[in-house]
Amino acid sequence: MPDELTSGDDRLRDEFNRWAEAGHGEKMEQDHLSIAEQTLRLMELQPGERILDLGCGSGWATRRLASLVAAGPKGSGQVVGLDISDEMIRRARDQSRDCENALFIWGSAAEIPWQEDYFHKVLSIESFYYYPEPERVLAELCRVMAPGGRLFILINLYRDNPFSLRWVEQLKVPVQVRSEQEYLELLAAHAFEAVEARRIPDLSPTPEEHCSRWFGNREEWLEFKRLGALLLTAQKPRRPVLAP
């Protein structure tokens, strides 16, 4: 837990506490389940691995991760869910009482309260564009990831999907809007290797009757889902990262 939040983190905490109280944390599972499940398969999770769920919200993805890395030949895996919203963390803990290998902590992505060289894999679903200091977050992720550890960032809001840009003016906190290429360059500039991007289409059923306030008609909604979320993957070098 950070001793003192930055003004940007404090603003995020207040907003996502409101989201938690409105039940949006649980709604995220329904909204993002299709793209999340596809990503979990690509992560090739193994029993015994240590995973960080960055921006875990109410913990729905954390619990899925925990079930996939549970006891194996190398022992029981562990999943740590981190979120800036203390109310999201409270709800995640309440909903995860039967999940023995999941731990939830409140804290900032720019100052991750964990030891270095620990996590085999990191997953971040729909949170990375909220961080006011993404460069600092990437430095922290590189610190807490084990050598050779893999990073998976999944986001719907990116410049190459114009439908998602409609959200920006409606959000009550600033967001970092980047293109796929800009994200690739950002990751490569912060010591990560094997930096790649792919699109993850939303394969969930689309109602015949249009019922989404973000799209003018059903065809726009279908095109948004076809364009898909952006999945960024990268690896921490196995060799020591030298300071510039």
Textual characterization of the structure:
- The mean pLDDT is 92.
- Helix 1 crosses helix 4.
- The chain has a single domain, classed as Vaccinia Virus protein VP39 (Rossmann fold, 3-Layer(aba) Sandwich).
- It starts with 6 loop residues before the first helix and ends in a 9-residue tail after the last strand.
- The chain contains seven helices and seven strands; from the N terminus they run H-H-E-H-E-H-E-E-H-E-H-E-H-E.
- With 244 residues, the protein is an alpha/beta fold.
- Strand 2, helix 4 and strand 3 form a beta-alpha-beta unit.
- The longest helix has 19 residues.
Number of helices: 7
Distance between the termini: 28 Å
Tell me the overall shape.
Answer: globular
Gross CATH architecture? 3-Layer(aba) Sandwich
Structural class: alpha/beta
**Strand tally, please?**
7
Task: List its traits.
244 residues; single chain; alpha/beta
Question: Summarize this, please?
Answer:
34% of the residues lie in helices and 20% in strands.
Helices and strands in order:
Elements: H1 7-21, H2 24-42, E1 50-54, H3 60-68, E2 78-83, H4 86-95, E3 102-106, E4 119-125, H5 134-144, E5 145-155, H6 180-188, E6 193-200, H7 218-227, E7 229-235
Parallel strand pairs: 1-2, 1-4, 2-3, 4-5
Antiparallel strand pairs: 5-7, 6-7
Helix pairs in contact: 1-4
